[in-house]
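Form 7-S
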Amino acid sequence: MYFSHQMLVSEMKSRAYNHKNPLDKRKAPGKDIQDIFIDTPME
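Output:
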């Protein structure tokens, strides 16, 4: 979750959006990359 959040923050900054919702890494457990999906990424 944390890694996904950081990627979204980078995208927002590249588009000149302001980021005002920091995510505490201690409160975002899990893997760096999502590997369980409801639908496959291609759907």
